[in-house]
Specification:
Layout lengths: L2 H22 L3 H26 L3 H23 L1 H4 L7 H22 L3 H24 L10
Helix pairs in contact: 1-2, 2-3, 2-5, 2-6, 3-6, 5-6
Length: about 150
């Protein structure tokens, strides 16, 4: 086992364990936040697994998850808007911590891979991961002030 696989195992075990516990128990606001954070923790884990196993297909999975995970959270935020209206989730500390973890993993992997198509793909995954989760967290915590709910 190399360092990449060890880091991926730690991120996936700790991150997914806590998010699965958060999704399975507690009030609705904690469950939707945990669902959103699961994407932010699985993507860096997949990127580290891709580096550890030298499998570029894991980067493609991380790209797909970084794209679809926040979209799923936005769908939940829209469908559960009535139930979340009185008790909005506030998890900005966790959101920024997950964004920092994703950014750190992407930057380290960009340094390791060097310039090229793989680095561009990593940067796209990182931008989608961080941006998508920040937007989804904002939507969960009350949305954007000047946007109507239609």
């Amino acid at each position: 086992m190399n360092g990449w696989l060890l880091a991926a195992a730690v991120i996936l075990a700790v991150g997914l364990g806590t998010t699965l516990w958060g999704v399975a128990t507690g009030p609705l606001r904690r469950r939707v936040v945990a669902q959103n954070l699961s994407t932010a923790l699985v993507c860096p884990g997949l990127l580290l697994l891709a580096q550890g196993y030298h499998r570029t297909s894991y980067v493609d999975l991380a790209l797909l998850l970084a794209l679809l995970g926040p979209v799923g959270t936005l769908v939940f935020a829209r469908l559960l808007a009535g139930e979340l209206a009185g008790d909005r989730p506030r998890a900005w500390g966790l959101t920024w911590a997950a964004a920092g973890l994703g950014t750190a993993v992407v930057l380290v992997l960009c340094v390791v891979t060097g310039p090229g198509r793989a680095m561009v793909k990593l940067l796209v995954v990182g931008a989608l991961l961080v941006g998508g989760n920040l937007i989804a967290s904002r939507a969960l915590s009350g949305g954007f002030p000047r946007v109507s709910r239609g």
